[in-house]
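Example 5.3 — Four-helix bundle copper-binding protein
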Amino acid sequence: MSIRKMIALHPDVVKSGHVNEPLGTAVHHAMYCAKMCMSCADACAAEEMDMTQCIRVCSDCSDICEAMSRVGARRSGTNEQVLKDMLELCARVCDACAAECEKHDHDHCKLCAQICRECADDCRKAAMTISA
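Solution (predicted structure tokens):
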């Protein structure tokens, strides 16, 4: 089961016959990215070195990804400008998180940076499909 399938089953999507695959992929990755960033922030808190900035950036990224995935999964009605803005914001925040995590040699930071880069790319692709 996936969020992409859930979005495709929404009555408004079924009626229109238009499933926005890039948006479904962005929502899917943002859901995972939110959890990965939260986990990375927690792991950073357990590191012996000062990881305050990484914790902050990962926590912010987690919250933004969570919010974007919630907005993106809603298919009733329209709010295209907000959706596009959220996708673009999510991409920028994911880029910032990846850049911060790439400064550290911890495996959890490397994994977090990877999912953030993937999420940012997917959000940009989805934003290009939204007419606002």
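Remark. The helical segments are 3-8, 11-16, 21-46, 52-73, 80-101, 107-127.
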